[in-house]
Design brief:
- Helix 1 packs antiparallel against helix 3 and helix 2 runs antiparallel to helix 3.
- The model has no long low-confidence stretch (mean pLDDT about 95).
- The protein has a 4-stranded mixed β-sheet with strand order 2-1-4-3.
- It folds into 2 domains: about 100 residues, no CATH class; about 140 residues.
- About 75% of the residues lie in helices and about 5% in strands.
- It is rod-shaped, with a radius of gyration of 40 Å.
- A hairpin with a 6-residue loop joins strand 1 and strand 2.
- The protein has 5 helices and 4 strands.
- By secondary structure, the chain is of the alpha+beta class.
- The N and C termini lie close together (about 10 Å).
- The protein binds zinc ion.
Amino acid sequence: MEETLKQKFKVLLAYQKKDIELRKINLTLERDVSLAEMNKHKRAFNEAKQAISECEQAAGGLLEQFAALQKYIEDNEALLAELENADETGEEELESRVRRLESLKSKFQTADKKMHDIDDKSKTVCKRRGDALKYGNAAKQKFGEARDKHNALVSSKADEITRLKAELDQMRLQLDKKLFEEYESLVNDNKFPPVVPAAASDKKDMFNCGGCGLSLPQNGNALLSTQGWCRCDNCRRIIVHLS
Ligand SMILES: [Zn+2]
């Protein structure tokens, strides 16, 4: 490989080495178990919040049902008092009074059943709300603990990240512009690392891509021997042969 080009690749490879270091640290932060814990507890907390809001809605509905039922009972009680206080009347009217009292009796029985039903539902709603409050608070506390742990990890890596970024900024000034554009375009395509060595193959003077591992075609091998580098037909990475 021509000497100035070799130099360009060498500084690019030094840059890539540092870039790899930075990516490793960032990956450590992204894969931190505390971060996953934070997300888990946040979901649990939101579920609890949702359950509490559903309970409050249900409680509102039950209160309305209760008020309507109370009104119904009061109306029937008034009717009962009216029937009880009625003056002595004839036989026909007495029979009708008995019929109305019978019907009132069944109405009170229905009302009683409904009241029990509301009572049972209220107990269920209260229990669910209490449970949700409990696990919501637990989730909030566990989220805080996980967040503290994650923040501690982030802080412990902060200096190193700042240093690597500053060094990369500095090194970028010395990179060949065109080569670096190619480098970045490969990074954006998730081809990391973008520059790979030519890997030796079973056949003499024939190489494989050091990135995807595929064997290079004839013209790729020819370029490697004439100019010292080529692009992989498969993964498009820059393959270099610096010797
Ligand atoms: Zn490849």
